[in-house]
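> forwarded from #structure-qc
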């Protein structure tokens, strides 16, 4: 069984079983499983793989994120998959941090609205998952009004593709 098949197999099992109570499971190159091994920080698990792939394609096409960003890295950092890619790199955000905030808030709008996720948790995790134009991001900007064509494109995408 090749590495991709193993990774897909484990992601499928973990998606069905869930992570609650069993700890973090990591498939290593030597085909052993380690429980409790620390994983890189990622966004909270909420999004579906299909929806997140549409978001990924939109962000790459509109040049919000670097075209070199592997889909596996994006899926892991957005909380969709539970096994980190071997050479995981943060997502390189190319536009304004306010636009990133909007994408994250819209992506996690349902759990935020229900109260099962706080915006502060997204703000805490974002610097671990994203770079700001190739540089380490200190923090996610505070909410403020921004009028731009890019903001309009983001709003249109989320209206057409609800989470």
């Amino acid at each position: 069984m090749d590495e991709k098949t193993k990774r897909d197999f484990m992601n499928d099992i973990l998606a069905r079983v869930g992570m609650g109570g069993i700890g973090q499971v990591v498939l290593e190159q030597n085909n052993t499983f380690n429980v409790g091994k620390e994983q890189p920080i990622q966004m909270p698990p909420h999004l579906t793989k299909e929806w997140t792939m549409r978001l990924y394609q939109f962000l790459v096409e509109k040049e919000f994120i670097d075209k070199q960003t592997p889909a596996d890295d994006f899926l892991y950092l957005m909380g969709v998959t539970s096994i980190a890619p071997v050479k995981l790199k943060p997502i390189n955000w190319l536009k304004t941090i306010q636009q990133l905030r909007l994408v994250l808030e819209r992506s996690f709008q349902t759990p935020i609205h229900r109260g099962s996720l706080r915006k502060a948790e997204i703000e805490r995790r974002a610097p671990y998952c994203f770079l700001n134009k190739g540089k380490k991001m200190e923090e996610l900007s505070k909410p403020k009004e921004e009028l731009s064509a890019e903001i309009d494109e983001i709003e249109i995408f989320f209206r057409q593709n609800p989470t």
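QC bot note: The two ends are 34 Å apart (CA to CA). DSSP finds seven helices and five strands in the chain.
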